[in-house]
Amino acid sequence: MTLKTFKIGGIHPPENKITEDRAVQSCPLPKQAVVLLAQHIGAPAEIQVKVGDEVKVGTLVGKAPGLISANIHSPVSGKVKKIDTRTDASGYPKTAILIDVVGDDWDPEVGEAGQYEWNKRPLKTDIQATGDEIRAALAAAGVVGMGGAAFPTNVKYMVPPGKTAEYLIINGVECEPYLTADHRLMVELPDEVLVGTEILRRALGVEKAIIGIEANKPDALRIMAERVKSYPNIQVQGLVVKYPQGAEKQLVKALTGREVPSGMLPLDVGCVVNNVGTAQAAYLAVQYKRPFVDRILTVTGTSVKNPGNYLVRLGTPISQVIELAGGLPEDAGKIILGGPMMGKAVSTTDTPVGKGTSGILILNKAQAKRPAVEPCIRCSKCVTVCPMGLEPYLLSEMAKQNRFEEAEARGLMDCVECGSCSFTCPSHRDLVDWLRYGKARVLANRRKGK
Amino acid sequence: MSTGMIVSLSPHVRTKASISMVMGMVIVAMIPAILAGLWAFGLSGALVMAVTTGVCVLTEWFITVYMLKQPSRINDGSAIVTGLLLGMNIPASTPIWQVIAGSIFAIGLGKMAFGGLGHNPFNPALVGRAFMLTSFPADMTTWPAPGAARWSILQTGGVDAVAGPTALGMVAEAQGLPDGLSGVAGMPTHWELFLGSIPGSIGEVSALAILAGGLFLLVRKIISWESPVFFLGGLALFTGVFWIVDPVRYADPLYHILAGGAMLGAWFMVTDMVSSPMTPRGRMIFAGTAGLLTGAIRLFGAFPEGTSYAILIMNAFVPIIDRYVRPKKFGQKKKEASRG
């Protein structure tokens, strides 16, 4: 297979895929589940339960108030203890339903899914649902993108008038260093991913779906390429290892050769992009009517005693998942939800696992410290590596000097915050921090109508 | 539970590279050319190089610590690079007091006056050389013959210093002779220029040694290919046109590339990060024009060599180049097409 990739920029951070050969293990239920009402982009779900209510696995506890939102289901069975707030990865306290866990009884409406171990479910390849039924099932199950941004999935499959979809792109790139959750999913449940892809392809009404997988996962690539032979409308494509290939614009470019124009979406070039995890969640939602109540995530770090990939119920505090991996190492300096390039550092281990939590990365004290900022020596590495073709050295200075309009004219808003510039800078300058600041200020000015 | 962990924005991993590592690579890359220079000019060359390097580092340290009251930055190695580069760019017979003056000027006015590392518009070593060439034109254009006095520490006016004209001096002289190049006796061959048994500045004698260091920098991705290729290409283009028209009076382009400071400039001065443009296309314009200018100064200027002035002139245009030459943005073409 000829490997493909995107053209402009890109970096090769150390991969550190320590857990790539570790089979997924099930994480025990927590004593108390912390169910956040905003685990997705868009409006928080509206609470459907009150203190004292009995809930089962799959009981709707939060209802999407509008289109850009997502249903939230109880991940455990037990009793609603309290409606409180908990700090999530954003660093802000958010409304959460605290459920004292009694057991693992599934709601009768979703009962069938609860009968099986996660890796012993019979494969249901026969897809009966129509496009509308698929969208409804995705919405009912609260499926959101599992790659990180957590955008409600059903919305992506409503193509607005005037736009045409041609390709479904399924993201099996997992270009973030350390993370191996998608890798393990493709190795251990390849058929669920493929049927899920087929379901999403039908919902979108396109002829072709392409699954992109980076060449640093040879076993996943081999297994998926083998199994895909039973799916005539799906193609598996190997990709050159290069960060940020999993960014949707870069992935669309790599797989179709199409460039999403500045300020537009993949759909503007006929593509819809979803993660392999999302495809599998779609499979469960449509074929089993199973709500989104758990996910695979990687717990990793060079000092972690027992790093691995775990199937974790949403709402499990990360402290408990970390315990499972051997506990917080003594030299721990930083806890990150997600990967090292775009993940968010958290201040507390009370933060629960959410729909978008792809991993828990623990850096040691030496790794956690930011190196001192030195003067720019104009080496131009940031310009070379920027996958959007921007000039981070210049945009960061403009943002620092509040020259937002100039920065915007020079492409500031195209920045995808992948962090390649900051990673590569030999002077360790805080480039992407200033670009984020600049973007936030431009958006604030736009809202003010300035 | 609050954990006392560090909370900061992504990315949470950074490159292992640093300024001192970049400068260290440049220093390593200079070693072959420096060794070739020391083989040719012996102890006097070593003394000049030691003085430029030592005085550049001391000057930066003094200005940073005593005048600016800032912590010393000499560990980053950039002053060493400037010092070595200045030493490579002057004759081994230059009087030491002039070498000291040039070094102080290079760092003091070429670098620190603009705000130190990263802020200097001109290559500091070339600023120092230009200052010396203007102030001490006679000593700066007297070149000892290579290998003549390896064990003599001071060649200045010494009896064992055998001064000889440079290859480019002969090329310039030939332009005015009726017989052209064949009228000049003892012109070095291409091979002699390539290997390095010719009079010249300490670091420019061996094109081969410079190329070895330059390719090392290219492979380690410290420099990009555009700068040396377009610089030498521009020089070859300008000198080539005249050679095609009148090969009797004008030297061929390969001779121009191998002679004088062209190779040193192409691999170690046009490629200077701080004083060159930030985009590949910008570097093509910058280096290509500097190459053309070098050719123009060599053929028509007052001096037989023009590399350092050509690069200094183009250094001044870098801010303009960076303002107007932008990298190709992702998704740019279609946006413009749809607008049109």
Structure description:
The complex is a heterodimer of chains A (450) and B (340). With 450 residues, chain A is α/β, with parallel strands linked by helices. Chain A folds into 3 domains: 25-287, Rossmann fold, CATH 3.40.50.11540; 312-368, no CATH class; 381-447, no CATH class. Helix content of chain A is 28%, strand content 20%. Chain A is built from 15 helices and 17 strands. Chain A has helices at residues 111-114, 131-141, 153-156, 181-188, 190-204, 218-227, 248-256, 276-287, 318-324, 365-368, 381-385, 392-400, 404-409, 420-424, 431-447, and strands spanning 25-26, 32-36, 46-47, 54-55, 60-63, 72-73, 77-87, 93-103, 167-172, 208-214, 234-239, 271-275, 294-300, 308-313, 332-337, 344-346, 359-364. In chain A, the strands form 4 sheets. Chain A has a 6-stranded mixed sheet, with helices on both faces. In chain A, strands 2-8-7-4 form a 4-stranded antiparallel sheet, with no helix packed on it. In chain A, a hairpin with a 6-residue loop joins β15 (332-337) and β16. Chain A is globular, with a radius of gyration of 21 Å. The N and C termini of chain A lie far apart (51 Å). The model of chain A has no long low-confidence stretch (mean pLDDT 94). Chain B is mainly α and 340 residues long. Chain B has 2 domains: 19-139, no CATH class; 165-324, no CATH class. Chain B has a two-stranded antiparallel sheet with strand order 1-2. In chain B, α1 crosses α3. The radius of gyration of chain B is 22 Å and the shape is globular.
